[in-house]
Amino acid sequence: MRILGIETSCDETAIALVNKQGDRFVVEKSILSSQADIHALYGGVVPEVAAREHSSTIFPLLKKLDIPANGEGIDAIAVTSGPGLVPALRVGVEFAKALSWLWNKPLVGVNHLEGHIYSVWLNEKAPSFPAICLLVSGGHTELVLAKGEGDYEILGRTRDDAAGEAFDKVAKLLGLPYPGGPHISKSAKAGNPSAINFPRPMLESGDLDFSFSGLKTAVRLHVEKNEDSVEDVAASFQQAVVDTLVTKTLVALHRTGAKSVILSGGVSANTLLRETLQEAVEYVNEEVTFHAPDLSLTGDNAVMIAMAGAVRAEKKEFVDPLTLVPDPNMKLN
Ligand code: KG4
Ligand code: ZN
Fold first, then answer.
1. 185 lines ligand 1 (CB under 6 A)
2. Ligand 1 near 293 CB (within 6 A)
3. 181 lines ligand 1 (CB under 6 A)
4. Which of 140, 209, 239, 265 has the fewest Cβ atoms within 10 Å of its own Cβ atom?
5. Which protein residue has the closest C-alpha to ligand 1 atom 23?
6. pLDDT, tens digit, for every residue of 124-157?
7. Could you give the CA distance from residue 332 to residue 82 in angstroms, rounded to a whole number?
8. Whether the model pTM is above 0.90
9. Three-state DSSP class for 107?
10. Rounded distance between C-alpha atoms, residue 5 and residue 65, angstroms
């Protein structure tokens, strides 16, 4: 099954050709155009600007794939249809609908979060179900139990800011550029993670939800009253986020008895989070396997959308190319 994946839910325009051969995925082509530099001027993603950039970028990207004009060789098209920014999603969705109609190829609407989960399926070893998925990105912080292919239960989520959003906002108040995650992580390398004892939010809540807004405020209040170095604040903040994410993931693992843990989303590029979670998972149960995406697949990309789409396409879970509309609140089911 050769599938064309398209992703425009936020600020990356991405398109990929992936071949699913049995349980294995082979990436034949993958192209990505990031708008991060443009949105950095505004300090965050501006939906209308994102949509305009997707519109001007997507056709040139498709042309670079050198697909025959009649779509020959493609078995299906997969496009992110939610969640995400509606003006941005719409560009990819309308583009995919047009290709599906023109080429007479079936269309799959992919949930962006399911895409992030599938980003680890290119690794040498695929996760076993049931799996605990910690999805951490600029827009999402969710703990999901994947019971099997396409069978999900949300165990917990953020009640306010997403983990990546917290990184971005704390970076802003420390005077670091957008997107803040990589800058905080770089700056933290030269800092002391125990310098400031920031709160570990919601650890006593008894549920698996997160809340990062209070932590962000704690950082702001601390910075206003103290003279700690940017490096120490970054390291202490990062440690508080990682401790919280890792602790709750271990609770989820313990409660469900899952066989594997999947870390994915933009924040999964964070080295401290990857290493701490892997060590913790392997320490509590050496039979549980840990999976994180290759660093090229942590952020938004079309390879993961094609992989998730191929699994659904094999089950013939197609959508009508004449009626598909973006769903900004699309749920994992
Ligand atoms: O998945 P993604 O590319 O886009 C969304 O769907 O949101 O995630 C982007 C988020 C941003 O908030 C960015 O600051 C964060 O991922 N991020 C990081 C790191 N690299 C990217 N956060 C912490 N540490 C990093 N190394
Ligand atoms: Zn994402």
1. yes
2. no
3. yes
4. 209
5. 181
6. 999 999 999 999 999 899 999 999 999 999 999 9
7. 10
8. yes
9. strand
10. 12
